[in-house]
Structures
1.
Amino acid sequence: MKKEESKILDKLGKNAGFKVPDNYFNDFNARLMESLPEVKITEEEKPTMWVRVRPFVYMAAMFAGVWLMMNIFTIGSKSTATGEQRAAQISAGVANEKNAEELINYGSVSDYDIMTYEDSVNMEMEEHDNAGN
Amino acid sequence: MAAKAKYDEAEIIEQLHRQDTCRAAFGRVIEHYSEQLYWHIRRMVIDHDDANDVLQNTFIKAWTNIDNFRGDAKLSTWLYKIAINESITFINKKKALNNISIDDDDSFLVNNLEADKYFDGDEAQIKLQKAIATLPDKQRLVFNMRYYEEMKYEDMSEILGTSVGALKASYHHALKKIETFFENND
């Protein structure tokens, strides 16, 4: 701040030469308090529990509504798909390499199934032999 | 004598918004701010009796509008704004009463300073007051707030609604004008 000021002001100092009557501020404060008119204060009401949780409830309801609508449209689209549309969906799925592999795997027979089948054939043959004897 | 309770502005603002505590809280506000606002007003209107009237109007206006003060700004900023408005309104009314154009400077306020019983300054201090009175109202405010009150430019910016850069420029211009006044009135 010093660098902003001038030589003239440096010489004069910050006392402007003004003064007030003795005990002025105490008297002023007391007089003013007596002269203040009545005022009406609008007190802020504390928010109720419902007011506080309302935004969250509204948001939850909105998400639930969106979820419900998505489900309704999904079901609707399934039931209204024509045979051609379904065929197109299947062919699109088959074109995908991953889906195709899944389909192949789905169609193949597991070792367990093979063993079970061989065992049952062997068992049948044994039963037949035993019956022949 | 009982010790004064600590002034906690947040607590005072809360009490100001309750019907049962607002009057006492406002008493604390008056106690806390009356002196600094008085000196701010006195440097603007110069005369003690005028400063007393403007200070009283400032607090009464603040009190009657206390319900509109929501605590978004500092209480001091709000009170200073009211005090500045009241001071400028008072000076303009006084100009009108004395048939002085509203565009003229406020030199007329300093004319009877020598005769003021609540002024004990010397010739140089009277000359400084005359120099300050030649400044436009806003420049006079900026000069007084910075030079006498040593207020931060950031706080002044909030009160006057002017950028810090513009306030610094305004203060610099005020200093130059005061120096020129002293050079021309040697």
2.
Amino acid sequence: MHAVLKKLLVHLKEYRKECVLGPLFKLLEASFELIVPLIVAAIIDTGIPNGDTPYIVRMVIWLCVLALVGLISSVTAQYFAAKAAIGFSAKLRHALMAHIQSLSYTEIDTLTTSTLITRMTSDINQVQTGVNLTLRLLLRSPFVVFGAMVMAFTIDTQCALIFAGVIAVLCVIVFGIMLATIPMYRHVQGQLDSVTAATRENLTGVRVIRAFCKEDSEMDAFNRRNQLLTKMQLAVGRISAAMNPMTYVVINLAVILLLRVGALKVNSGALSQGEVVALYNYMSQILVELIKMANLIITLTKSAACAGRIASVMSVRSSQRDGELVPAADAPRGSVVFEDVNFCYHGAGADSLQGVSFSAKPGQTIGVIGGTGSGKTTLVNLIPRFYDASQGRVLVDGLDVTRMRKDELRRRIAVVPQKAMLFKGTIRSNLLWGNEQATEADMHDALATAQALDVVASKAKGLDEPVEQGGRNFSGGQRQRLTIARALVRKPEILILDDSASALDYATDASLRRAIRAMDNPPTTFIVSQRAASIRFADLILVLDDGAVVGMGTHEELLRTCSVYQEIYASQFDAEEVRTHG
Amino acid sequence: MAKSFRSQSATLRRVLRYIRPYLPMLILSLVLSLITVALTLYVPILVGQAVDCLVAPGEVDFAVLGAVLLTIGVCVALTAGAQWVMNVINNKITYFTVQDIRHDAFQHIQSLPLSYLDAHPSGDTVSRLISDADTFSDGLLMGFTQLFTGVATIVGTLIFMLTLNPGITLVVVLITPVSLLVANFIASRTYSMFRLQSQTRGEQTALIDEVIWEQKLVQAFNHEASSLDAFDEMNERLRACSLRAVFFSSLTNPCTRFVNSLVYAGVGLTGALSVVSGTLSIGGLSSFLSYANQYTKPFNEISGVVTELQNALACAGRLFDLIDEPAQAPDPHNAHVLEDVRGEVDLSHVCLSYVPERKLIEDFNLHVKPGQRVAIVGPTGCGKTTMINLLMRFYDVGSGTINVDGHRTMDVTRKSLRQNIGMVLQDTWLSSGTIRENIAMGRPDATDAEIIAAAKASHAHSFIRRLPEGYNTVISETGGQLSQGQKQLLCIARVMLCLPPMLILDEATSSIDTRTELKVQDAFAKMMKGRTSFIVAHRLSTIKSADIILVMRDGQIIEQGKHHELLAANGFYAKLYQSQFAQ
């Protein structure tokens, strides 16, 4: 835990000056506060008995001066603390973002997206609050508590021992209760999550729940969780409700003791009346600071937990190392070769790809077909090195992808993923994702090939039509065609269509494939699909079953030789048509 | 402003209605809080009296001191006891109230029409039930523990101070409001800074959301550096405006403390002079000083509590808005219970629209004989899903009627209607629980043998058997460990177990590969035999064997007939079908 936090605190380095000055000014303020009871004692012991009004006025002016100096130092302290804490969180956010960006798909798969977003937002905010409060208060409260005790010692040793005892007992109570309740609060939080889950499930599954008339049993399940939550909240509440009364009792018992001992000392002349009042005032200061400190520690525990979660993301290292080679200028542009490739997902029991070998020549169309979970997407994901093969080699333009510079590799490849996703901005800004230097003409060509010209034409602002987050102001089919255009703007050597035509109707799907073939420099195109119609005209079809290539060849060859392909085809076209069209 | 005030007071009344069952507890809590405050304030006076006993060497009045100290002890014990009981009671009132509101909200969700749930993001509703309820409970608890106590402390302190010395009290009363003014001044100045901060934060979160969700895409397009640039630009803006907001708001504490110190100095001056002139004892001065230390605290707390409470009321308001959403029309009390359904379905002149300019379904007519198989095809948004919504009575028709076996569906109980229709949706939803529980959803009393038989019939048995715990494998909320296809097989098994007389299959096989689909279709064929079925699918081959094919477009049936008839008609259906074979 310690080492982990250290890693985050590196980002405070630049604010070393602020980290020292902040607490320093805070301590200055606290010191002034500690002088106050002494001045009051002086008023009582010197000013009042002598009826010395000018003396009293002078002392009160001193009180005002102390207050003013205290104000100035604490404002200074707040400024330094805020500057350091906020600068720190900004740096941390940047570092975390850059780190997440550097992770490969393997790591991204293990870290869930919503977790990462929480780390970037609320966790960092919580850490910022923690740093800010630490700089402001962590030193101040103990300083006042122990300072009050030290001041008590300067007044009277015996009475000061009461202080020492009280501080010990209070610490036991405050920290004991905190130790007991912090894990309980965590459980409450966990139970709240379970109520959240029940609610969310009920909403997302509302059709099924109503179709099966499960409203009542859902209600029962929710009530059970909800009531358990209340029960847990009450249990922890009962304990933490004891904190204030208990500290109150302890402090006041100490006051009673103090007055009793003080009385004996005053009687014997060892102490003055004003000094007893000063001691009493110190006691009150201790109580106030201790409660502040308890609250501070609760906040800090939360912050530390958040910091730990951030650090755990930071400690995830990318499993890929960037290569340094660049393909030679005369290398074949757009060739893809798989040499006996095996692939196993991190933590999975079995290989998702086994012994895959094939070779795609520049400009060819490669169809990849197979059932759900047969490894189609996995196969194409190895080409841009989203994952590394566990065994065997993947070569692009004659070079092993693990030895090629990643940016060079990915510059040559354009991927259209299954889920058609656009970014907030405009149609134009989305197309520029593919290639920042694209001209108007490039975009027009890409849109035409992707059958997306009518999408742009149908929008009032054309290319500058705004795109909302996720592209939700476009229909599924429109989004899909725009993502294809985005990929084509890149003028890639290799184009990967990962089941990207599923939202298109058959006619558009066919026009799209025709247009890609008619391009000036047609890219090597991988078409992943479950539809035999989408891939039947490919130069090479790979038939996958359970991670293995069970058939390879053209449509006609496979229809003759590959039983899996025959089954797929027959399930989509009935026998009569297989005869007439096939 | 007036309106928001009215709605706020209306919300407050609703909250009070929820608290009413706990009224005895509330009264007890208030009484205890009065006792606590009175005793807490009495203690400094007693301490002052004790201090007065310690006049000078040899002049200490031990008899009086002993009595005073004993009284302090008793007071302290009583205060602590009362405070603890009060805290526990406040917890009870708060948590039970929130539990009740959550219960009502959840119950109301069960009867909300789907049109509401479809139109509102579930995240928003969840956040009302969870975060809003939580904030409300925090605010309520704080309100209980601090608001009343705070007011009582201020009033009590004033009374005690007045009895001690009216002159010094005047000093305190005059200076204290300065602290409130300062706090208010700072709060109003920082409000706009905080708004800017949360706005910038919102922008940044949107960017983070997008980049992280689409991390893989960002990498695929080599876009890491430019995403980070955009992020850094926002990050810097956020840093600048956060610094202003955090720094200026953190001035409140030092400033109010400064005013507090001035009050303290003022009391010290006037008090000491009063002691000199003989109108106050030294013990009295000590009492005053400790009051001066405490007096401004409740003011600051109350201003905090008022903001918290307003926040809490706003959250409660959002919860009540949800509870107040009109529920779906309840079943008429003489509603018919569908039994022994044959499966004859009649739709006549059915219309449905939410916005007048866009009709979802218009003048829809259809007669389905028992056991017939109806296939629905058409482009996205043509009204296929709407039809299912109407058949299941997830939505009610705008006009026209739907009859099942001659009974208007509006006149039969929703429960009996839905029990007679089996449904497999495109969205494969499983509840968190075991595989067994999920299959037995419609018939919790089914035997293991029946469950396994249903799983076998839907070809789910073989993969279930291979799971670590077999039928007892627990599926998490999102069904993470199962593939989309496997989830769909489970949904089919779920219906397979009940086998109601009517079926709705919406894109039921879209995520299953075509070979598995072949097997499932075989099971479907058995399942559909003798049952009225409605099938929606993109794959034309899966619906060719239907008795009626409805070709829908823009909420209307544009073609209707058997496969070969429609092909012969050479219309929209024929065009859709031919495109399968285009190169």
